[in-house]
Specification:
The chain is an alpha+beta fold. It has helices at 2-6, 8-17, 42-80, 168-173, 219-227, 229-237, 249-253, 262-301, 307-315; strands at 99-100, 107-108, 112-115, 120-125, 134-135, 139-142, 160-162, 180-183, 191-193, 201-203, 207-212, 256-259. α3 runs antiparallel to α8.
């Protein structure tokens, strides 16, 4: 009965019975006249329920694994972005290594303190009034919705395309591999790094573009550092006062950054990348399980496939 009432068929009936505008609700006697279609065999009902319960269990286990990996990443980021890895591959600590003061608290003595301006070739922001260049195909137009706080990779499932104007304005805001992106209005300080395979792309006026000097910094180190807890605290305090949230380019340029040696940046960035890949793989698997569970529920509850055929496939 639980899965029957969750099915599209039953949910459609329930929605059709909802009445009232100020306080939508169901009448107390609606359940008395609710149409039910179910197998006459209690054994078949039980087997259908068993299959769907197994799917639900697999989904919950996968959600727990994703949550645990996200917690591992958070802890790893906290350690690596403030202590790093020593020459023996171990996380540094104050008992065995010397530390010094930084705007983000104690850091290893050998790390440098710099600013985004010093480690970049150029800092700018996207152009206004590009809506007139929108198109169904063409170059990608990156907006704040393409950034996420879950990681520093771009979200490209909902992308706007443009035919950019010819001239210096398009050249100024064109994206390249390893560019750092920072949201500077609305939801401030969301970080992204441009991947190698993005293709021709531009940004809108709500995003700052930092052309990092890739000879001295790893863009993924910088991106992960800025998305970490301590840097995000600093970003929230640097928000310009006023009714509308925002940060200017001078604020971005002056923002402090801590830098291990380039080789250590590379090593830490790669470990974080691997963790992100593992999390993303499990999220894709979760989405696949949820689609399979949804399809099975509709097919089994609706009688479009028999439980015997499913059990035969599982045993096979």
């Amino acid at each position: 009965m639980y899965y029957l009432l969750l099915s599209q068929y039953s949910q459609g009936i329930i929605r059709s019975k909802i009445s009232g505008s100020a306080q939508p609700g169901l009448k107390s006697d609606f359940i008395r006249h609710f149409p039910i279609t179910l197998p006459t065999s209690i054994i078949e009902q039980s087997k259908i329920s068993e299959i769907l319960l197994i799917m639900d269990y697999a989904i919950e286990i996968t959600k727990d694994l994703i949550l645990k990996q996200c917690q591992v990443k958070t802890g790893f980021l906290q350690d690596q972005l403030t202590s790093g890895i020593d020459e023996n591959g171990q996380i540094r600590n104050s008992n065995s290594h010397k530390y010094k003061h930084s705007p983000f608290g104690p850091i290893p003595e050998e790390w440098e303190i710099s600013t985004l301006e010093r480690i970049s070739h150029r800092i700018t922001s996207g152009s206004r009034w590009w809506a007139k260049y929108y198109s169904d195909i063409g170059a990608k137009f990156i907006r704040i919705g393409n950034l996420t706080r879950e990681h520093i990779n771009l979200k490209l499932d909902d992308i706007q395309h443009v035919h950019p104007p010819v001239g210096s304005e398009a050249q100024r805001t064109a994206l390249e591999y390893g560019d750092l992106l920072i949201s500077i209005t609305a939801d401030l300080g969301i970080i992204g790094v441009v991947p190698v395979d993005l293709g021709e792309s531009y940004i809108n006026q709500h995003i700052a573009l930092v052309k990092l000097n890739k000879e001295i910094v790893n863009p993924w180190w910088v991106g992960n550092f800025l998305s970490g807890t301590e840097a995000q605290k600093q970003i929230s305090m640097l928000n310009e006062s006023g009714a509308k949230a925002g940060m200017n380019l001078k604020t971005i340029a002056d923002f402090p950054i801590i830098l291990p040696k380039k080789s250590e940046q590379d090593e830490i960035a790669e470990i974080i990348r691997q963790i992100d890949v593992q999390i993303q793989t499990k999220k894709e698997y979760l989405a696949k399980l949820q689609r399979l569970r949804f399809g099975l529920m509709q097919d089994l509850i609706g009688g479009r496939i028999s439980v015997l055929s499913i059990l035969t496939q599982i045993r096979g």
